[in-house]
C-alpha cells in the first residue's frame, strides 16, 4: 500500500473509488471494465499533471517520502557484490553513512552514501541518515583509499543534515565535514555525486564536492531545511513552503544555477512509485558519467572539480 | 561627525540622533559602563571581566597588521541571483547593512606585515549581516588566499559568522568547497594557513575554512560550533553542558591549538609565522 502525500489526495480518492468498484463488482455479472479503465486513465492523468507542476515544498515531501528508495535499495538493485567497509579507525562505525566496494556496469567503484533506514528499528540504527563525525571520517578514509587504488568514487546523498548533538560537536562535526569536503576535492580519481533524496546543507556537501553532480528529478538540495530557514527568517516554521520557494532548491532550479550538471528522470509519480524504474535511470546516468571520466588525468580531474566551485559567484 | 553619523543622518528612514556619539559602552557580560575610548584602546576587551567584544574588519586588521598595510579591493560578485525575499528583500537588507558599515560585504583582507613578517590577513565582520558567508565572502576569502599564494606568504583568517547566508541559498553552500579549493592550494604551496576563531563562528563557516587551518587559535570564550544550540537542544532534549561550544571547551576536545587573549594575538601570530615561514617549507 502506497502512502499518499497531502497534495496527492485527489489521486488517492480516485484510487479508493477504483478499489471499491473492483470489490463491489466481485462476482457480479455487470461489466465494469470500461468504467475501471476510464477511472485508471483519469487517475494516471491526474498524477501526471500533479507531478508536472510540483511546488518546491511538495518536492521536499516527495524527496522525504518514507517509501522513497534509499542507499540500501540502490545497492541491492544497481550494484553487484557490494562489500561494506566499516569504521573510521578513530572512534567507531557510523551507519548513517555507508560505504564500500561495489561494481556497477562491470566497473569497480568505491560507493559511499547516506542511509536513512526504512522502519523504526533501522531508522534508529542509521540515525535517520544524519551523519556523525565518525561517519564523515569513514568517508574520508574510503575516499583516500579509492584514490590510492584507482577506484572511481560514487556517492549517493540523502540526508536532512549532519547530526546536531553534543557528542557530534565534541568529536568535531565541523572539522569532519570540512575534511570530507577537502577529501572530495583532493581525489585523483573520478567522482560522481548524486543527490538522490534530500541534500541537506554541510552534511550533504561533504559527500558532494564532485566534478559531476547529478540529481533526481524530485530531489532537493539546499543550504538549510525549509523549516529551518523559515524559523530564522520568518520566525515560524509554518512558512516552510515559502522558504522552499525562495531558496531555489529543486533540481530544475539548481541546473539553471549551474550547481548540478544533470537531472535523472524519475518514474511518473516519483521514485517511490516504481523503484525499479528509478534505479534503472540512475544506473544508466552513473554509468554514462563514469564512462566519460574514467581514464582522465588526475590533475585534469582535480582541475575540473576545482573550476566548477571557483566559478560560482564570479560575475560574468 | 563620524562617517556613521553622516550616513545615518542622511537616511530618511532612520531617526536622527539627538545625542552626540556614544561616549560610553556597556560591557555585554559584566554590564560595567566603560568609557568608549578606553574600551577601544583596550582592543575592545572589557578591562573588568576580559569579555572580548565583537569588532569590525578595519579595527581587527589594525590590531593585527603593522600600520601601512594594503586593504585588498572587494570582489564584484553576482548580487541577489535568487531574487530572494523573506519579510524584506535581500537587496534591501544588503542596502541596510552597507549603510551602517564601511564595506560592501562581510569579508575584508589586508596585505602587510605582522611585526615585520609578511602576511595576508582576512577578517570576517559579524556586524555585516551576521558575518554570513555568501558569494562575496567566499570570493573575498579566495582572493585573500590567492594574494598569499602570489606573495608566497601566510594567510591568516579571523572567522566570525552565524553560518551561510540563507538569502543566497545553495550558492552560499557552494562557498564551502570553493574556499576549500584555496586552502588546499595554500597547503600544496607549503604556505601556512592560520585560523583565528572569534565570537561567534558557527555553521557552514566552521564546517569549511574555519576548521582547515594548520593552526587554530581561538579568542577566549568565543562561541564555536557546527549546529546551533537551540537546534541541538530540540533534537536531543537534553541539557547542554556548561561552557558547551566555547573556546575552552573546543580546546579541551582537541579542536583548537590554543586560546589566546586579544592582547597577545599579534605576538602569537608573529611567533607562529616564524615557525611556519614558507622558506622552511620550500
TrEMBL record, chain A:
Keywords: ATP-binding, Cytoplasm, Fatty acid biosynthesis, Fatty acid metabolism, Ligase, Lipid biosynthesis, Lipid metabolism, Nucleotide-binding, Transferase. Pfam families: ACCA. Residues 38-292 form the CoA carboxyltransferase C-terminal domain. Pathway: Lipid metabolism; malonyl-CoA biosynthesis; malonyl-CoA from acetyl-CoA: step 1/1. GO terms for molecular function: acetyl-CoA carboxylase activity; ATP binding; carboxyl- or carbamoyltransferase activity. Its main location: cytoplasm. Transmembrane segments: none annotated. InterPro entries: Acetyl_CoA_COase_a_su (IPR001095), ClpP/crotonase-like_dom_sf (IPR029045), COA_CT_C (IPR011763). It catalyses: N(6)-carboxybiotinyl-L-lysyl-[protein] + acetyl-CoA = N(6)-biotinyl-L-lysyl-[protein] + malonyl-CoA. GO terms for biological process: fatty acid biosynthetic process; malonyl-CoA biosynthetic process. One of its GO terms (cellular component) is acetyl-CoA carboxylase complex. Component of the acetyl coenzyme A carboxylase (ACC) complex. First, biotin carboxylase catalyzes the carboxylation of biotin on its carrier protein (BCCP) and then the CO(2) group is transferred by the carboxyltransferase to acetyl-CoA to form malonyl-CoA. Acetyl-CoA carboxylase is a heterohexamer composed of biotin carboxyl carrier protein (AccB), biotin carboxylase (AccC) and two subunits each of ACCase subunit alpha (AccA) and ACCase subunit beta (AccD). Belongs to the AccA family. This is Acetyl-coenzyme A carboxylase carboxyl transferase subunit alpha. The gene is accA.
From TrEMBL, chain B:
Its cofactor is Zn(2+). SUPFAM superfamilies: ClpP/crotonase (SSF52096). Pathway: Lipid metabolism; malonyl-CoA biosynthesis; malonyl-CoA from acetyl-CoA: step 1/1. It catalyses: N(6)-carboxybiotinyl-L-lysyl-[protein] + acetyl-CoA = N(6)-biotinyl-L-lysyl-[protein] + malonyl-CoA. Binds 1 zinc ion per subunit. Keywords: ATP-binding, Cytoplasm, Fatty acid biosynthesis, Fatty acid metabolism, Ligase, Lipid biosynthesis, Lipid metabolism, Metal-binding, Nucleotide-binding, Transferase, Zinc, Zinc-finger. Zn(2+) binds at residues 27, 30, 46, 49. Residues 23-282 form the CoA carboxyltransferase N-terminal domain. Gene3D superfamilies: 2-enoyl-CoA Hydratase, Chain A, domain 1. One of its GO terms (biological process) is fatty acid biosynthetic process. InterPro entries: AcCoA_carboxyl_beta (IPR034733), Acetyl_CoA_COase_Trfase_b_su (IPR000438), ClpP/crotonase-like_dom_sf (IPR029045), COA_CT_N (IPR011762), Znf-ACC (IPR041010). This is Acetyl-coenzyme A carboxylase carboxyl transferase subunit beta. The gene is accD.
Amino acid at each position: 500500500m502506497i502512502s499518499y502525500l497531502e497534495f496527492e489526495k485527489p489521486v488517492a480518492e480516485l484510487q479508493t473509488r477504483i478499489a471499491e468498484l473492483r470489490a463491489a463488482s466481485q462476482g457480479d455479472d455487470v461489466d465494469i471494465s470500461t468504467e475501471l479503465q476510464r477511472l485508471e486513465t483519469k487517475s494516471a492523468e491526474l498524477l501526471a499533471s500533479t507531478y508536472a507542476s510540483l511546488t518546491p515544498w511538495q518536492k521536499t515531501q516527495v524527496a522525504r517520502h518514507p517509501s522513497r528508495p534509499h542507499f540500501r535499495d540502490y545497492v541491492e538493485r544497481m550494484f553487484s557484490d557490494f562489500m561494506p567497509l566499516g569504521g573510521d579507525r578513530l572512534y567507531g562505525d557510523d551507519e548513517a553513512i555507508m560505504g564500500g566496494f561495489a561494481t556497477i556496469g562491470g566497473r569497480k567503484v568505491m560507493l559511499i552514501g547516506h542511509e536513512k533506514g526504512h522502519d523504526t528499528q533501522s531508522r534508529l540504527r542509521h540515525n535517520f541518515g544524519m551523519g556523525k563525525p565518525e561517519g564523515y571520517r569513514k568517508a574520508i578514509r574510503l575516499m583516500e583509499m579509492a584514490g590510492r587504488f584507482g577506484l572511481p568514487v560514487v556517492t549517493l546523498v540523502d540526508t536532512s543534515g549532519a547530526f546536531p548533538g553534543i557528542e557530534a560537536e565534541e568529536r568535531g562535526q565541523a572539522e569532519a565535514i570540512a575534511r570530507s569536503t577537502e577529501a572530495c576535492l583532493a581525489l585523483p580519481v573520478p567522482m560522481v555525486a548524486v543527490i538522490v533524496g534530500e541534500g541537506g546543507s554541510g552534511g550533504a556537501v561533504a559527500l558532494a564536492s564532485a566534478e559531476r553532480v547529478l540529481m533526481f528529478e524530485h530531489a532537493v538540495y539546499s543550504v538549510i531545511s525549509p523549516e529551518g530557514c523559515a524559523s530564522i527568517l520568518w520566525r515560524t516554521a509554518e512558512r516552510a513552503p515559502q522558504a522552499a520557494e525562495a531558496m531555489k532548491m529543486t533540481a530544475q532550479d539548481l541546473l539553471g544555477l549551474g550547481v548540478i550538471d544533470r537531472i535523472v528522470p524519475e518514474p511518473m509519480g516519483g521514485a517511490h512509485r516504481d523503484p525499479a524504474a528509478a534505479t534503472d535511470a540512475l544506473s544508466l546516468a552513473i554509468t554514462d558519467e563514469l564512462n566519460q571520466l574514467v581514464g582522465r588525468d588526475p590533475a585534469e580531474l582535480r582541475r575540473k572539480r576545482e573550476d566548477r566551485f571557483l566559478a560560482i559567484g564570479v560575475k560574468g | 561627525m563620524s562617517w556613521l553619523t553622516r550616513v545615518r543622518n542622511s537616511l530618511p528612514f532612520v531617526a536622527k540622533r539627538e545625542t552626540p556619539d556614544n561616549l560610553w559602552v556597556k560591557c555585554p557580560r559584566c554590564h560595567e559602563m566603560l568609557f568608549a575610548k578606553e574600551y577601544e584602546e583596550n582592543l575592545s576587551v572589557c578591562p573588568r571581566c576580559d569579555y572580548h567584544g565583537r569588532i569590525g574588519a578595519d579595527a581587527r586588521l589594525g590590531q593585527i597588521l603593522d600600520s601601512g598595510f594594503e586593504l585588498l579591493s572587494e570582489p564584484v560578485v553576482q548580487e541577489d541571483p535568487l531574487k530572494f525575499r523573506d519579510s524584506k528583500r535581500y537587496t534591501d537588507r544588503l542596502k541596510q547593512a552597507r549603510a551602517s558599515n564601511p564595506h560592501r560585504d562581510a569579508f575584508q583582507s589586508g596585505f602587510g606585515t605582522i611585526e615585520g613578517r609578511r602576511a595576508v590577513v582576512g577578517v570576517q565582520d559579524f556586524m555585516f549581516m551576521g558575518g554570513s558567508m555568501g558569494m562575496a565572502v567566499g570570493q573575498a576569502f579566495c582572493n585573500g588566499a590567492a594574494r598569499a599564494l602570489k606573495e608566497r606568504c601566510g594567510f591568516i583568517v579571523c572567522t566570525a559568522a552565524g553560518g551561510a547566508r540563507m538569502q543566497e541559498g545553495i550558492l552560499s553552500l557552494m562557498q564551502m568547497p570553493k574556499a576549500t579549493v584555496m586552502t588546499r592550494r595554500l597547503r600544496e604551496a607549503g604556505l601556512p594557513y592560520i585560523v583565528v576563531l572569534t565570537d561567534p563562528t558557527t555553521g557552514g563557516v566552521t564546517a569549511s575554512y574555519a576548521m582547515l587551518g594548520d593552526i587554530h587559535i581561538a579568542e577566549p570564550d568565543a562561541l564555536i560550533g557546527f549546529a546551533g544550540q537551540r537546534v541541538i537542544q530540540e533534537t536531543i532534549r537534553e541539557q547542554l553542558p556548561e561552557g558547551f561550544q566555547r573556546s575552552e571547551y573546543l580546546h579541551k576536545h582537541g579542536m583548537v591549538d590554543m586560546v589566546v587573549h586579544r592582547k597577545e594575538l599579534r605576538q602569537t601570530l608573529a611567533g607562529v609565522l616564524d615557525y611556519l615561514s614558507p622558506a622552511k617549507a620550500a
